[in-house]
Design a protein that fits this description.
Blueprint: H1 7-31, H2 36-44, H3 57-67, H4 69-72, H5 95-100, H6 103-112, H7 128-141, H8 147-154
Helix pairs in contact: 3-7
């Protein structure tokens, strides 16, 4: 059964609907006093120490215990040197570290690893959802209570 619309006409109609919706949103945001640039900046902004990727801490605990404990210890204090010339494994109780790292940076570290220190790349070994769950568990279990966590709680 053939549609009564040609492919170019259907694409044009779809684009018109998308742009009409975006125009209505833009008009509404300008009425409410926000701008498109502000909305884009705030959506893209990620504060250090604030969980932004979602994830399930309970599921993350299982992944952490299976894969991360050998180097970062059950209590998250790390300090294990995997290579004589490498850095010791991350201490997840370090408040200064939490104040400077975003979830995207933590995710990148897990995915790419630190070969010079002996941490393997977990990309392809862990699923993206498992990595998000581990990050949620790190926040839940090890992140010191402090400015980043308190700022997120006030929002």
């Amino acid at each position: 059964m053939r549609s009564r619309f040609s492919r170019p006409a259907a694409v044009s109609a779809l684009l018109a609907l998308v742009f009409a919706g975006a125009g209505a949103w833009l008009a509404q945001s300008q009425i409410s006093g926000t701008s498109l640039a502000f909305a884009a900046d705030s959506a893209a902004a990620e504060a250090p120490g604030v969980s932004t990727l979602g994830g399930d801490p309970a599921k993350g605990k299982a992944v952490f215990e299976k894969n991360c404990v050998p180097c970062h210890k059950q209590d998250g204090t790390g300090g294990i040197k995997l290579l004589p010339t490498g850095n010791p494994s991350r201490n997840f109780h370090d408040a200064a570290w939490w104040k400077t790292k975003t979830d995207s940076q933590i995710q990148h570290s897990i995915e790419t690893g630190f070969p010079k220190s002996g941490m393997v790349s977990w990309k392809g070994i862990l699923k993206p959802e498992e990595i998000r769950n581990v990050i949620a568990y790190l926040h839940f279990k090890f992140q010191p209570k402090g400015a980043p966590a308190e700022a997120a709680a006030k929002k």
